[in-house]
Amino acid sequence: MWPDDKPLFFRISATDWLEDGGWTPDDTVRFAGELHTHGVDLLDVSTGGNASGVRIPTGPGYQVPFAARVKAETRMPVAAVGLITEAEQAAKIVANGEADAVLLGRELLRNPSWARHAARQLGGAVRVPEQYHRS
Q1: How many C-beta neighbours within 10 Å does residue 1 have?
Q2: Over the stretch 53-66, which tens digit does the pLDDT of each residue have?
């Protein structure tokens, strides 16, 4: 049993991008409702990776519409992913109500200080431990 005082995130592939059959955004919306009733606190909405030989139309924020749809059609809080690399891009996704959060993957591997840089770009401040001030 998962403790009530800890958040439970669930990552889903909102579509497998197959043209005939497979997992669809409609399936994801239905499943999100079920997950919410079973105590999932946030749905991390990704796509692809489940089937080989499919064409995935990638570009900045290409998976955000899937998160936005789940958010619009369910009560489930969602996180958007998918080639989100710029601070302004991430802030806009949340401000526009397309997602409740933005999660980064490869961009954090390329730039582990992304959050600090993003905070500076957006006019925010980041509090860091004293031992980091020398770096």
Answers
A1: 4
A2: 899 999 999 999 99
Model confidence, pTM: 0.89
pLDDT at 62: 96
Is 86 in contact with 51 (CB distance < 8 Å)?
Answer: no
**Assigned CATH class of 9-106:** alpha beta
User: In which residue are the tokens 């933005």 written?
Assistant: 102
If DSSP codes are grouped into helix, strand and coil, which group holds residue 41? coil
Domain ranges of the chain: 9-106
Structure token pair of residue 66: 């899937």
Q: Which long-range contacts (CB under 8 A, 24 or more apart) does 90-93 make?
A: 90/118, 91/122, 93/61, 93/64
